[in-house]
Design a protein that fits this description.
With 101 residues, the chain is mainly alpha-helical. 79% of the residues lie in helices and 0% in strands. Helix 2 runs antiparallel to helix 3.
Length: 101
Amino acid sequence: MGEIMLLIFVFVIAGFLGVELISKVPSQLHTPLMSGTNAISGITVVGAMSATAVAVLAPSSTVGMVFGIIAIVLAAINVVGGYLVTDRMLGMFKKKGDKKK
């Protein structure tokens, strides 16, 4: 029970810290920060795949396997969505006459 409370505490503190940090970032830095965040999210996908592989190898680990698959799907959506948003933001800086090749 103590471990779960500690993990919940760390999650809540990380949430508050994330909100504070994001609200202080000037708008000119959002695009570079999004690219860096996407790279970190890619690492999250690798971690989720590793955790799922361990859960698959363990006997009677259906819950771990399901949570691992959910983690992989959510992390992949986060990576793809982040790159789409970054591409759209970078497109806003192009001149009107420039066409995408």
